[in-house]
């Protein structure tokens, strides 16, 4: 009985997950004119999880005060998890992504808000994203090269 239930549930999930995933990811993040809209629509699953389980819980704990501080806390948590993933995959700690995400991402999130609707802000957003990715790739490649070809030597 339990095998049948497990099997039918697995088949149901395998058939329904692609549909659910497509629905959750079809949002026009490429047309965003603000960083806050981009962050909300880029990865809807992660945004919704952070919103419902971190942001709203922190707001509830703080009696709906300090919204900006709660937003900052969510950014720092997300930046820390991203940096942890990079550290584990690369094998060294080099907090470029954390600095760009937690500092510049937060500043741009508050500076270029949802009130900006002009396509000019979409160009600014994409230019900023391309520059940020270029900085990250350049610095991580440079550090990767340095880790391989310039190992640290201990001085006694």
Write up what this structure looks like.
The chain has 156 residues and is mainly alpha-helical. It has one domain. It has 6 helices and no strands. The protein has helices at 2-25, 35-42, 44-61, 67-90, 96-111, 119-149. The chain is globular, with a radius of gyration of 20 Å. The chain starts with a helix and ends in a 7-residue tail after the last helix. The relative contact order is 0.10.
Helical segment tally? 6
Q: Number of folding domains?
A: 1
Strand portion, in percent?
under 5%
Task: Write the element-wise H/E pattern from the N-terminal end onward.
Answer: HHHHHH
C-alpha Rg (nearest Å): 20 Å
Number of strands: 0
Arithmetic mean pLDDT? 82
Net shape? globular
Cα-to-Cα separation, first versus last residue: 67 Å
Largest sheet: none
Poorly predicted regions: none
Q: What fraction, in percent, of the residue positions are helical?
A: over 70%
Supply the helix-strand structural class: mainly alpha
Question: What descriptive keywords fit this protein?
Answer:
156 residues, mainly alpha, 6 helices, acyltransferase, MBOAT_fam
Task: Give a short synopsis of this structure.
The chain has 156 residues and is mostly helical. The chain has 6 helices and no strands.
Ordered list of secondary-structure elements with their pairings:
Layout: H1 2-25, H2 35-42, H3 44-61, H4 67-90, H5 96-111, H6 119-149
């Amino acid at each position: 009985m339990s095998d049948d239930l497990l099997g039918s549930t697995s088949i149901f999930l395998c058939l329904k997950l692609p549909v659910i995933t497509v629905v959750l990811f079809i949002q026009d993040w490429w047309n965003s004119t603000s960083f806050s809209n981009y962050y909300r629509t880029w990865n809807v699953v992660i945004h919704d999880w952070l919103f419902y389980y971190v942001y709203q819980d922190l707001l509830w704990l703080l009696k709906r005060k300090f919204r900006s501080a709660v937003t900052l806390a969510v950014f720092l948590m997300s930046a820390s998890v991203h940096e942890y993933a990079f550290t584990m995959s690369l094998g060294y700690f080099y907090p470029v992504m954390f600095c760009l995400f937690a500092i510049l991402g937060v500043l741009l999130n508050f500076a270029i808000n949802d009130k900006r609707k002009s396509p000019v802000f979409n160009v600014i957003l994409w230019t900023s994203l391309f520059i940020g990715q270029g900085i990250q790739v350049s610095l991580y490649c440079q550090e990767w090269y340095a880790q391989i070809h310039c190992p640290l030597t201990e001085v006694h």
